[in-house]
């Protein structure tokens, strides 16, 4: 498997994150979550110093993967779904690259109006028309998530090549999903869990279906998930519960990967970490949102942040790579608890309990 050259910071970044995961066993969750966020920004500064011309190199690699994908599929019709929060950010950049690579791309978002705004912008920027569609998807409602698959099927597609579980919430006041679960965990994990399992039959019909789950270095903040703290404001931590959801993303990737391999399925699933990016994730926290204005100088652009998702979706040499956690387009170390099958199975059992959805056999 070919990848970009390992960034100079990658080795010590992984060692530091593993150390933080050790600290999380005895330190307050909010503290370790904050340390992860600060260190991600410090590492961005290091990257700015060590990798000059990053944007130009990013655009060059992006175009290379787009051309590779076009050549690999030889004009065959391909379909992708990207869950997104609206008309900006990582989902926008990912969807744009998929369209340029020849995919009919569906933006799944709570606001169809914002999805259509994103489509209009992508069509204007790329000159590619009628290759996109916006469909409603509220990840905080299991009813909405379960209604998405029939809506997708009604478009006449029988196969899905790429699913990017991109949308997410971060650092929000305490709130509950329609089914009564903490909002960050409910949207970032439970919504995507149900969506992914519901769409597996379509991914299985593709020549090689791919699932990309957006995770985060925040997974290193905690060495377990407090499932008993997902129904009430007791013990709620804005960043701490976000870290629970991001750890859940990687546990889900590992658990589903084992099941898919057991079915000998061609579907692959990998997690992607975008790094600390200048997006609207802090829109629910006025103080942090204000601080992000000067902090943008040490944050990645959405384009740079989306590169790992784009790579996992398009690179032909990843057709057999599954169950990994990628950062800067390279498989990286995960929180050790994410490798624990007992923890993976506990998450799976809780997810089935909370959503009523379980995996059915995926035919080879």
From TrEMBL:
The keyword Oxidoreductase applies. Keywords: Oxidoreductase. SUPFAM superfamilies: NAD(P)-binding Rossmann-fold domains. Coiled coil: none annotated. GO terms for molecular function: oxidoreductase activity. The keyword Oxidoreductase applies. InterPro entries: NAD(P)-bd_dom_sf, SDR_fam. This is NAD(P)-binding protein. The lineage of its organism: Eukaryota, Fungi, Fungi incertae sedis, Mucoromycota, Mortierellomycotina.
């Amino acid at each position: 498997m070919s990848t970009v050259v390992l960034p100079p910071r990658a080795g010590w970044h992984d060692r530091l994150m593993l150390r933080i995961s050790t600290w999380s066993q005895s330190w307050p969750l909010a503290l370790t979550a904050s340390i992860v966020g600060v260190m991600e920004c410090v590492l961005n500064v290091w990257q700015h110093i060590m990798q000059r011309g990053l944007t130009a190199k990013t655009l060059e690699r992006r175009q290379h993967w787009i051309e590779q994908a076009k050549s690999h599929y030889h004009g065959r019709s391909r379909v992708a779904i990207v869950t997104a929060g609206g008309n900006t950010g990582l989902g926008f950049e990912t969807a744009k690259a998929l369209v340029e690579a020849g995919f009919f791309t569906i933006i799944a978002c709570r606001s169809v109006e914002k999805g259509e705004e994103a489509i209009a912008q992508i069509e204007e920027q790329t000159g590619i028309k009628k290759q996109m569609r916006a469909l409603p998807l509220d990840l905080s409602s299991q009813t909405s998530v379960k209604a998405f698959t029939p809506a997708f099927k009604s478009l006449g597609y029988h196969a899905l090549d790429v699913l990017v579980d991109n949308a997410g919430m971060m650092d929000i006041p305490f709130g509950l999903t329609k089914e009564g679960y903490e909002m960050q965990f409910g949207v970032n994990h439970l919504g995507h869990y149900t969506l992914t399992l519901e769409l597996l039959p379509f991914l299985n019909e593709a020549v090689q279906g791919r699932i990309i789950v957006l995770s985060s270095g925040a997974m290193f903040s905690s060495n377990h998930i407090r499932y008993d703290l997902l129904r009430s404001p007791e013990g709620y931590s804005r960043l701490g519960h976000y870290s629970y959801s991001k750890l859940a993303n990687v546990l889900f990737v590992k658990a589903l990967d084992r099941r898919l391999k057991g079915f000998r399925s061609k579907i692959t699933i990998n997690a992607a970490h975008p790094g600390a990016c200048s997006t609207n994730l802090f829109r629910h926290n006025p103080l942090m949102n204000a601080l992000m204005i000067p902090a943008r100088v040490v944050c990645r652009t959405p384009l740079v942040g989306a590169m790992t998702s784009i790579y996992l979706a398009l690179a032909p040499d990843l057709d057999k790579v599954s169950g990994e956690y990628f950062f800067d387009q390279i498989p990286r170390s995960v929180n050790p608890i994410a490798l624990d099958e007992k923890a993976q199975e506990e998450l799976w059992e809780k997810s089935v309990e909370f959503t009523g959805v379980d995996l059915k056999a995926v035919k080879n």
